[in-house]
Amino acid sequence: MIKFLIKRIWQLVIVLFAVSLLVFIMTSLVGDPLSLLVKENASASQIAEATEYLGLDQPAYHQYFLFVKNALNGDFGVSYRYQQSAIHLIIERMPATLELVVIAMALSIVFGIVFGVYAGAYPNSFLSKTIMNLSIAGISVPSFWLGMLMIYIFGIKFGLLPVSGRGEVGTILGIKTSLATIDGIKHVILPALTLSMGSVASIIRLTRAGIQENMVQDYVKLARAKGVKNRKILFGHVLKNTLIPIITIFGLQLGSLIAYTTITETIFAWPGMGKLIIDSINSSDTPIISAYILLVAVIFVVINFVVDLLYCVIDPRIELK
Amino acid sequence: MENNKASNIKSSFVPKKKTFSEKFDDFKKSEGFYNYKKSKSAIAGTIIIIFIVGVALLGPLFTVQDPYDIASLSLMDAYRAPSFMDPDNTQFLLGTDQQGRDVLSAIVYGSRVSLYIGIVATLMASVFGITLGLISGYYGGKVESIIMRLADIQLSFPSLLIALFLMTIFGRGVTNILLALLLVGWVKYARTVRGATLSVKSSEYIEAARVIGLPSYRIIIKHILPNVLTSIVVLSTIQIGNFILTEATLSFLGLGVPVTEPSLGMLCSNGFVVLFSGMWWVTVFPGLYIMLIVFGINLLGDFLRDEFNPKLK
Amino acid sequence: MEKLLEVKNLKTYFHTFKGVVKAVDGVDFYVNKGEILGIVGESGGGKSITGFSLIKLIESPGKIETGEILFEGNDLVKYSEREMSKIRGKDIVMIFQDPMTSLNPVYTIKQQIEESLILHTNLNKKERHERCVELLKDVGIPNPENRLTNYPHQFSGGMRQRVVIAIALAVNPKLIIADEPTTALDVTIQAQILKLMTELVKKQGCSMILITHDLAVVSEIADRINVMYCGKIVESSKVSTIMNHCKHPYTRGLLNSIPDIKDNKDRLETIDGIVPNMFKLPKGCNFYPRCNKRMEECENKEPEYREYKEGHYISCHYPIEGER
Known about the structure:
The complex is a heterotrimer of chains A (321), B (313) and C (324). Chain A has 321 residues and is mostly helical. Chain A is built from twelve helices and two strands, in the order αααααααββααααα. The longest helix of chain A has 39 residues. Chain C is built from twelve helices and twelve strands. Chain C has 324 residues and is α/β, with parallel strands linked by helices. Chains A and B meet through helix 1, helix 6, helix 7, helix 8 and helix 10 of A and helix 7, helix 10, helix 11 and helix 12 of B.
């Protein structure tokens, strides 16, 4: 167990090193931070002062060390646009994004597994074929377009639901969430549906493939030879074997949901970190960009770690290595 | 007598080279083709793909205007609804946008950009990925561990995010998108090819080829590549669809193609501005067309994957 | 003797895109109570499909076309899936070839044995536990109390097959169908498992159908033998008759290919040629292309399956004369 932890932490360090190097290279390539910090008619001394402040007069490796040192202290600099600590801005917006991601993930798991199991168990029924064709449509539809379609139909055409921003936030069990108020729920429906669509489709397809793969295994034959009824074989033997690898998929889906919040939040003006990062990219606000990338890298490594742990808990064949 | 026997054995074991028409006949009788004919979705996918390629190649001959040619646009034509909503509009079937640009023409030209990026990026990513996969699988050692480590790290991040940040560094532009997609897409190829190479490498006939002194590049080309070809075809089909979607998303976020070469994603983005004033057609039709393209590709890709997936058979 | 199972004109066909495979093509045989029947033949001869047909576990594109499977006088072919699931695992059980894949990897051994007990008996939790321990002890697994909570991957191949046998015996079945139960195991373990199975079968007084490609194995433990070739039974009789007075050239071929230490031959005899393409079976006798006793008649006329002597059935125009 300790060996496993050490190995994992070592991996985290490697990933963060690689990512931080990339981020550093990126920040030195994107735009000229000077031009954002000082006014156009700044005097030579003002420019020199700013240069020193940003460490731009130092050699590259020195700048990198400075960057890492500051990053370790949670200091990614001050956002050019907001004049606030970059990491603070991101963390402030994180709950809104996580709320969206968690709701979308819950939708994906419920619908994805239910439809996937059905389509895998009765592959020749009309409903299964419809589910499968819809799932192909689901992975083919551009997420931003789906969002716009929803905005037009539910917001503009019929005026059923709000299409912009986060609604009132209430508190449930000490967590601030939109789910606590009617207004909040109304606001979260469309973005969450839009975000979950691709993931629902993927999970349907993977669940179905897993079910079908397991249905032809010998242990299913033995179970049938024991007189176990088909329904019990499906929901007992097969489902358990299918769900184990799907845990890995959850991890990947969670990552991709976080990535796609950039689009969903942009379209629905959802005040989360996805919208913040797109706005920052468009205004070359590098402190926010680099803070975001590193933070997201940490999140992904943690997700992978949790997935591995879960895997060990659920699958008797695997022991922590 | 002995000699004769030996040559008999040889002639019965060495397969005759088949002509193309014989191969085609074999194909028509094969199980794969039989399943294809039975699969409605595979045929639907093929029809959609043929239609889309046809539109991209021949469409510009039939459009009412060249949307890139600003002189042909007239603000007088702006904000026209599609023909089925506005009987007076007989010229612009799917309506016009805020600058008087015909949406249908824009889709036809935009699909060329989208398809071009999807196909070329897939070709580039596959060549790059296959090469790295072969190198790491065949030679192993440090090169392999570096390449595969990199692949692992990259795979733990969603490809959209990677593409997003690459485009932040590179800036807008068709070439830059191709490059970003190449860097995002090589991993899957490299992994598939490396896996296949490793399993083929340890097989006895490769040992034999090595023993008789066949040079390594010949072993790779003659023995290893044909073994991974089907996986690469399946992967590429799906990859084209994915790349088209990624490109559309990047362009929608303003990090993709330049304004002068609007792809379908960019058309959607332009339409988003006027969506709130009820002009849904400017954004809905280009998006629908992206979906049609990717849907067609995925229908066929799905069939191919099922056919070539040995796990289910 | 009382017949437990009687199969009449059973046909199981597979409808594939290349054509119809007649995997089991009109077989007639019976199993007496308390008897071990061996079914032998080369791979692809329809032995396993015969076994699966008996408990109607034939997957699409396969289908039982016609025939009767009379189990204690009731025709199983007419039974619904629901009725079959009451027979399977209770009256008729099956043991598969590969113990590495036939146990569910995510359930403990106890859960898998208990499943049968829950389905087919009224034992309570404590009784079930005791029965599980008893079964593991019976099949020779040391330390059964502790092993019950283990998962299949913690057992070796031979041990897993013992578990599969324990599952099969859990509810005192009337008929066990064992499909190549020892083929996937080490040679040393094969003998142990076979001995164990025979002992348990005799002890419980049930019947067994042992499907194998190994005539030597089957001759040691079976009472009677069916020899199958290309979906048909070519010869069927008591073991001693098959071993010493076989009449079909194919059976003779199989016997001659068994290595014999006493009889120091330079090389083993083999049957020339290969099993014919199942899509294009010969017009007459299926064995015609490989037969060394073939006559003109064999090419076009299919031999009838008939009783040659009492209890000795054969399907050949020109049975071998004399002793072996």
